[in-house]
Amino acid sequence: MNFFKPQCLFALSLCLFLLSGTETTEIDEKPHEEFYTSEKTNHADIILVGGGGDLAKKYLWKGLFDLYQLYSSKTKDGWTFSFFGAGTKNHSVGWPQINTTLHDVIKCHDTGSCMKDKNDFINLVTYMRLKSDLDYKNLCENHLKDSYTSQNVCHKDRPCQYQRIFYLSVPPFTYESIAKYISTHCRPTKESGSLKVVLEKPFGHDQQSAISMSDAISQTLHDEEVFRVDHYLGKQAVEQIIKFRHDNKELENMMNGHFVERIEIVMKETVGVKGRTSFYDKYGVVCDVMQNHLSEILYLLTMDLPKNGSIRTTDAIIEARLGLLRNILPVFSTDVVLGQYEDYAEEVHDETDTNETSPTPTYAAVRLRMDSERWKNVPMILVAGKQMNERIGYARIIFKETGFSAHSKQGCQRHKQLIFHIGHGVLKSPAILVSKLLPVEGDTISGTWQLTNQFENKQYLHMDTGCFNIYVPKLVKDAYSLLIEQMFLGKKENFVTTQSLLESWKIWGNIIEIQKDKKLVVYEGGNQVEDSLDFSFHDRGLFFNSIDYQSLTQATTKFLRHEAVTGSASEIVTSVAKAIQEAAVKADIDSRDFHIAFSGGRTPIMLFNYLRQLHLNDIPWHIVHIWQVDERCSLKDSVSNFKSLCTSLINHIPGLKYENIHPMLTLSYPNELSWEGSSDTYEYTLKTVLGDAPIFDFVLLGVGSDGHTASLFPYNTALQETERYVTLIEDTEASPPKRMTLTYKALTTAKNIAVMIVGKSKCDIVQSLQDNNCVGEEKYPICKVSNESQNLTWFISDDAMCN
Q: Which tens digits make up the pLDDT trace of 721-749?
């Protein structure tokens, strides 16, 4: 007889892992032929919306001029251009401002060809007011079409390409309406050309806003038409990461937890945010640079290189990045430290006229970890801050020490590192620093990069530059110039896709929530900042050096006669995990199996995510048996406690034995297991494995807002069950109403019981339990567990305690 329902068989099968190797990829150095054919005459209309703004003045007009010089009709590529600088002001005001900007920002060091190109470029720029739907209609029906056809570039005997590009250098809240205008009035016909719309960050301030923005834009624009700019992906050192890894196979084979000690990605700025606090205070350092710039660099450093095809294949790079994102483990409060420079609060007060103290961090350090064989146990530290002691950006991989000197002369041994220097600092220009102890062939960093000795006898990150081979670009190029060219060529691997954006926000959205309750360290700023923001990282998390992490413990108190541990939600999760770990290790020392029963619901998922981070070393999973406290009877996998258990925990533990997983099977099928008999089957399994009087080593319980625990609901007849260890219940108030649950007899005899209560929504029930001193077991089923158990500990978050 088959006792397994299809859902459980499917979920169990997810617990098996398949390992796959990495195939060698080939790099395609051939240019994009569609853009390099002299037989074609092509045209592009490029509209810079927000053409008078700061970003346009600093970078975008210069980037468009560089594009014009590379691809204009005087070159082999045969492109003609029309440029439009757009703003909300009338022509009489807007054009003089943009005209002045163009003359100021485009620099020519010679008076010959560059000056001619500059004058020709400026003559191709037209100012347009774009403030309303009618303005976009006027532009696209009366100007773009005229400029396109007047060039006489496309007809049946003369094939060509046409691009219509809108670069939106405007606040993100305008994206939705502008995208609608563009789609309604400015979409070229399929035969004539392509549409591209370029967006600037921020792409939301949390996960929900990012989803809302993406959904709104997708209503009018296709994903392939949208280019989200993260200008750090255009930084020359960053742009080389994938190629460098690909070209250095021996070093690439060392890019894993066997050889790498840690990864650091750092962005320090000496300036503050005075003058722009109204913007910055809504986002803070995490949204401003960490969720985007630093994260994107981390993905390039750690993602698996594409298995098939070229590393320059856009889809392959995008898929590899998505795969990496899905392996990043959830972040907890102990993985984050935050700071705020001391003048920030006053600046916010002066510029926003508010008397409230701002909780926005201007400094953050975050530890990320991966749930992958490649990067197991490798901490990835991301650091960013304002008003720091120096301006510098870098990403470095620090390799483990494997050498030994008989004369105790370490020399460069402790500097076995690979560093992508993004900019500023003592090196000034972009650079790649490769330890002379690493297996890298110099000729693999050739072409547009060259070995240099200009940095000899300098100190870089407290290291002698003589320990490194240092490579710099032959020609330093601005990030925006590089990205504008890649956008023009249709290469999306250095742009943020919708999928990548939303996956990233799943990680950083949690960190945004953490920072709301995290204490800020106020730092002086400038040269005094270094000591006050120094931190260490340990198994328990990140801690500023000014704090003795050994003394950090969650508050312990008494609650309903039992010991209670309180703290933030993430601290509660950590404490429960530690209790499970200690109990499992004790069982292992005693040479016996460890039996743990998990309750269903949402609260345990946070714990499951944390336990995944411990499975590699800290818990002896080979002795662990996993049981269920309760299960819902439903055809929908989405409500299955076991499906949640598998997805969040079991699937991620290769050391867990298949036969040690004990799901509750509750569905009814003809000629198979009946619902009425399913509890008999589970009780039989329980007694077969644990004996006639089964005792669990550890039981995890939660508490519902009505006081129920497991699936023991108030006033239900199941509360009266005293003979059985497993029973079935029907409760019309529950959804779904049919459940299987362990009884009091099974729960109260456990060696360790952890009752985990997390969240503000549980404040009322915690207060009621305390006020009534847990009298009334029919009304509050958790009280009978509390009253009859000897080994129970409450784990209650501060917000659930109404604190």
A: 999 999 998 876 777 888 899 999 999 99
Whole-number Å distance between alpha carbons of 178 and 118:
30
Q: Which residues partner with 626 through β-bridges?
A: 596, 661
pLDDT above 70 as % of the chain: 85
Q: Are 451 and 404 in contact (CB under 8 A)?
A: no
Asked if 447 and 413 touch (Cβ cutoff 8 Å), the reply is no
Q: Please identify which residue in the block is written with the tokens 């007899």.
A: 745
Encoded amino acid at 509, one letter: G
Taking Cα atoms as reference points, which of 704, 754, 738 lies closest to residue 563? 754
Which stretch of DSSP H or E encloses residue 662? strand 661-662
- State yes or no: is 293 an active-site residue: yes
* Per-residue pLDDT tens digits for 97-130: 999 999 999 988 776 788 999 999 999 999 999 9
The H or E element that residue 698 is part of is strand 698-701
pTM of the entire structure? Answer: 0.75
Alpha-carbon distances of 747 from 124, 562, 575, 624, 693, rounded to whole Å: 79, 16, 21, 18, 12
Q: Which among 40, 49, 36, 157 is positioned nearest to 94, based on CA atoms? A: 49
Burial status of residue 24 (CB atoms within 10 A of its CB: 0-12, 13-18, 19 or more): exposed
Out of 43, 205, 231, 293, pick the active-site residue: 293
Query: Do the Cβ atoms of 713 and 731 come closer than 8 Å?
Result: yes
Please classify residue 457 by burial: count the beta carbons closer than 10 Å to its beta carbon, then call 0-12 exposed, 13-18 middle and 19+ buried. exposed
For Cα atoms 558, 603, 499, give the angle at the middle one, nearest 5 degrees: 145
DSSP code of 650? G
E strand segments, 169-275: 194-200, 226-229, 260-268
Nearest C-alpha neighbor of 277 from the set 389, 354, 173: 354
Nearest to 518 by CA among 510, 528, 529: 510
Distance of CA 25 to the CA centre of its chain: 26
Could you tell me which residues come within 8 angstroms of residue 496 by beta carbon, excluding any fewer than 6 positions away? 203, 228, 229, 230, 233, 292, 296
CB 580 within 8 A of CB 596: yes
pLDDT bin (cut points 50, 70, 90) of residue 188 is confident
User: What whole-number distance in Å separates Cα of residue 334 and Cα of residue 571?
Assistant: 7
Token pair of 82 as six digits:
């029309």
Q: Output the CA torsion 365→204→517→602 (10° steps).
A: -110
Please tell me the distance from the alpha carbon of residue 611 to that of residue 349, in angstroms, as a whole number. 43
Percentage of the chain beyond pLDDT 90 is 52
Coil, helix or strand at residue 697: coil
Residue 733 CA, distance from chain mean position = 38
